[in-house]
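Q: Structure for this?
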Amino acid sequence: MTAGRSGRISLPAMIWLILGEWRTQPVRVATAAIAIAVGVALGFGVHLINASALTEFSRAIAAVNGDADLQVASVSPAGFDEALYPRLARIAGVAGASPVVQLTAALPGDSQGLTLIGLDIFRAAGVTPGLLGQPDPAPQGAAGGGSGFGDAGAVFDEMAVFLSPSLRQAIEGGPGGRAAGARGAVLSLSAAGRTVPVTVAGTLPGVAEGRRIAVMDIAAAQWRFGQLGRLQRVDLKLAAGADRDAVEAAIARILPPEAELVTRESQSRRSDSLSRAYRVNLNMLALMALLTGGFLVFSAQSLSVARRRSQFALLRVLGTRRDALLIQVLIEGAVVGAVGALMGLGLGVLLADTALRLLGGDLGGGYFGGGQPVLVFAPVAAVVFFGLGLLCAVGGSLLPAREASRAQPAVALKNAGDAVDPSARPAIAPALALLLAGGVCAFGPAIGGLPILGYAAMALLLAGGVTAMPWLARALLSPLQGVRFAAPSTELAVRRLWGAPSQAAVALCGIVASTSLMIAMAVMVSSFRGSVDDWLGQVLPDDLYMRFAEPSQADGLDPAGQARLAATPGVAAVTFTRSLPLRLSPETPSVALVAQPIRREDPGARLPMIGAPRPIPAGATPVWLSEPAAWIHRKRAGDWMTLPVSGGQRVFVAGLWRDYARQNGAVVLTSEDYSRLTGDPLRAEASIALKPGADIAAVTAGLKAALPPDLAARAQFARPGEIRAIALGLFDRSFAITYVLELVAILVGLAGVAATVSAQTLARTKEFGMLRHIGVRRRQIVAMLAQEGALLGAVGVAAGLTLGLVMSQVLIHVINPQSFHWTMETRLPWVVFVVVTAALISASAGAALLAGRRALSMDAVRAVREDW
Amino acid sequence: MRRLLRTAGLLLAAVLLAAASGDGRVAPVYAPVTAGAPLTFPRDHGAHPAFRTEWWYVTGWVQGADGKPMGFQVTFFRTRPDVDQANPSAFAARQVLFAHAALADPAVGRLLHDQRVARAGFGLAEASETDGRVVIDDWSISRGGDDRWRTRAGGADFAMDLTFAPTQPPLLQGQAGFSRKGPAAGQASYYYSLPQMAVSGTVTRNGKARKVTGRAWLDREWSSTLLDPAAVGWDWAGINLPDGAALTAFQVRDAAGKPVWAGGSWRRADGRLTTLGPDDVTFQALRRWRSPRTRALYPVEQAITVRLPEGERTLTLKPLFDDQELDSRAGGGPVYWEGAVSDGAARGYLELTGYFEKLSL
């Protein structure tokens, strides 16, 4: 170990120093690295999962869309007038236009659903060749085909369908076996409320693996599925060298309200906005975890620097320059950060892979339906998250490094104790400034639809809370100052903590950070869950519910069928509902247009209203918006808005209601208005009130019997309790990642506490020797340490709980409404509080106790002598 | 006579009922080709949608200012697929139109070709039933009030905008336009030709339009049952002779290459017409060429001998170049050879189908 002439530390010496330090403090270094790793892993994992899910999602869209350059799509499944098709085809710059009927369809006993596409193959050939079917070869002995001028063969077998490879595999793997998907097999396809027998003719070789698509002739699809005169899509191919903007402008001029221009960009923006809030929130949580890691590095490095004061002093005396020491400590931090971040990247890939397999691309959030995403590695994101991990570790080492470089060699060589003067009052002003800034940020608006300021508020509050720790520790312990304790050990413990608050703060900042984050999340989740639970009670007032198996859009009950259900013995009343996806703007996800049997004057009977409903102007069509719909589309009760149905309809926003089911919003119409505006008389859901004393099983059987056979097979009945259980199960599933995060945060916090406390205790060997000299017994010192630990833990819990509660309010009242557009009432998870309190206090007490035992095993006399 | 009509009516009703039976599907009833129905113009220049298939077939030789000859072919087809006639959808494929265009430039050595296909409807693809006018998107063929025909067709490699002025009255093939195509009574088509049309217009290559002039031949044919079941394809030639005479010759071949049927016509410059029967036409392959792409073997050089009242006449047709094979499978069509051929100053087109696989119509 030599300081070169330059005053720098040579590389071998540096490595030697670092390794030596780590050998003595393996747990603490490991904890810090793990904390960084966890933060990086979570952030990177969430990013990977989402990138994979988005890739999957856009692949799914691309599969259904073929490879059209541009697309005009209907804003709802009701479609638009087919007269638009020739007008689009004639626009200059459009080389090809392919009209498409697109329906959500289902096969018997299949809950996944499929996309049924009706194509004019002649038009599709030039625009979306990927959607063309390939007929299966004719069986041996059948009449030879040959080719000819105008012999189109199976193309005009109107009932022929071509199946995507995955759909075909699924059918062949079903109860019907291989024969069910073979050429000529008849499938019972349900869509738009009709069930039609179709014949398997071949495969769609251009459709990617994992997609469930069936293609048939457009004319047959229009006729058999009640879509005469309607199209859901026109795919467009641009002429070579066409001015895309000019073509888009020309299209925009002729589009009716029921249709919109969809480009790859707007589509990816929409799929991005689907999960953006969810994704950003998870990423923010990951950053918070990273921040916690940074605090843990700070703890570890502070203690390490404090312990090595004399070592550093010696280095200074030997000629090492100040900045060399600074760099030495920073490099130590950077190495911890790099190791942690590398582990984190690996862990992140593992996490993403596992989560994708177990939970799907939306982590159970329900944003993306359909296929299983394949993990997509993101090199840029990997570099970014590695950098963030490194930055946190270096940032956490900065203060300790400065402290190490500032030490006066002469003093430091002698004195190895707490260099802080006990009589100095810890400063509170910086902490207050941070907390105040956090408070201000919390009242800021969303930026770009994201609660950026809300998260800034949380980070500032966290930093403020941690900075306030020395002051807070002393403030909390001050009341104990005047108290005379019976046991000297208690007296010693209190005085020591009071006198060395900055050391306490170093030990505490990790705990406070992790505890407060954990508590904030726990409060938010419990508030959310409680509100959802209450809401479920409000929206499920009846005795029995009926719906059709997914995809529910494929089925519907006509008015005659509705009347039959209502007339079933034992049924007191049935209310029918229906919902239809409707896009209000090209870049936002579809809202649900919902038919509810509401009386205009009393919407509260069926909807959990927020605020008083507005009086409806005479002649106006009222709609009631769910909270997210109102947020996303910036409407308030009393506003007017236009629905893109029936050529565009002006409607009156008569009130807002609470809805946790549809994150992208729901627009409720009365049942009559819905049928009038959409022309859709079908209903897909029923809530049934029973006559007093009616047997629910018998009524269910009666209702099943009253349904047409193909619908009866797909009808599902559930009692409110069951639905509630399913809904809460879904809720828990979507918050599964949050629960994992909480658990990790608390484990890291506990490990950090244990490592820090034990390190601090071990560093005090000389102090213990001194105490032993003046007659304090070994048992008393151990008791003192345990009490010190417990007190430390208690201070940490108190600070963490308080900070956590404040941050939870930011989550509940700022971040959630801004990102998910719904509000909730605070509910406190008392059990979590108790468990966390007990765990933290016992962990710090236990760690102090164990470390104390070890420290005391050294000979007291030698310990003291060594000091001088 | 009245009884006969009533019987026919009953038969028709029975056919309709049979077609509508089963799952309620209503199959199309194709109009039969019968002898003795006179062709009238301009009505018969237009489409006959009741029949299964129909075409407007222009072939010819053109040359630009450099005097180098090129062949061209522009064909519009109409077909009536077997779809449920009850389907009220505007997309129901009651009529499907398609078109091929090919340019035979010896400097290129193979055909430049493109195609269009669409179901009739929405004004994007339609065939007039009153006069010669077929449109598929940006391609068209139409007869103007001055009796001149104009066609526009093309793709990425080439484009044609050609006008054809008739120099002679329509040539009615067979018995006044009723042309038998096989030994059975029903195997026939309505068939007339417009030979010796004067061509003017532009051919665009590589973005450069060149003025061209030349001679063309328009074939019009429609039918419901054209081919004998034993037939695999046919050879056809339409040749404009320099003196204004026109030779039409065709033979329908079986799998062994033997003629199932043959026919044609010889119209002299003064308009005197000789209709040729199965015994009056012989095709003799002089040289064959194998397509490197499809391995099909085409008799690209043929001697066609016709028996006329004044004696036998033989034309020895040589192709402008060998590789004039047209693979239209991408558009649902067949693989065939459609080439510019000549015997000295007698120029025309030779069509060879069914050499790759059996042709069905």
